Amino acid sequence: MFFDNEMPTVVFEIGKKRTFLKRDNIYKLNSSPVYCYFILSGTAKIYIDHKNGRRSILDFVGKNDWLGELSLFCYESDIKENRVLQDVECLEFNMNELRKLCKENAKVSFYFASYIANKLLARSYRMSENLNYSLNRRLAAFILQYQQNSIYSIPHTDVSEYMNVSYRHVLYVIEQFCELGVLKKEKGKEYIISDIEKLKELQEK
């Protein structure tokens, strides 16, 4: 998600550095959020397990994303499940302190309103892309967004759930990218981006 509105200094100054390790849950399920977070590096997923046994991945958060910011303005009756996929470095903010700032400082309120509006537009655009663009293009853009220092390691099962396609289809496209010399498979589940310019070209096709 592209968002070019810089965080107000008054907000940045009350943030505290926090680290979550891979497989940690940032929020506890069925608890009221006390903090929200600004992601400096790493990736986490937000998902719901349905009563019928199926799972829906609502979104991924990465560098320069907020997590929990909706609770500044509305009561979330149930916390969505979240899981760290790549170690997350972030700034932690007390929810009550941020709410107070939003009430007292119009610039802070506008900053969060702009961020939330941009997130809504990004999700709407993603839904439209799912209907109108090939998986090759969408997956190339996804890899570029969530790579860390040219390393991509999001599980294929998560990507297939997020993009509403089969695991086999995701694996097929990943293998195509490897054959094109765009990705190189490493040990475990990691891929090295070996040709980032070609990957950028793929996201435009």
Automatic annotation (TrEMBL):
The keyword Plastid does not apply. Gene3D superfamilies: Jelly Rolls (2.60.120.10). GO terms for molecular function: DNA binding. Residues 37-101 form the Cyclic nucleotide-binding domain. InterPro entries: cNMP-bd_dom, cNMP-bd_dom_sf, HTH_CRP, RmlC-like_jellyroll, WH_DNA-bd_sf. It comes from the Bacteria. Coiled coil: none annotated. Keywords: DNA-binding, Transcription, Transcription regulation. It holds the Pfam family cNMP_binding. GO terms for biological process: regulation of DNA-templated transcription. The keyword DNA-binding applies. Signal peptide: none annotated. This is Crp/Fnr family transcriptional regulator. It comes from Geosporobacter ferrireducens.
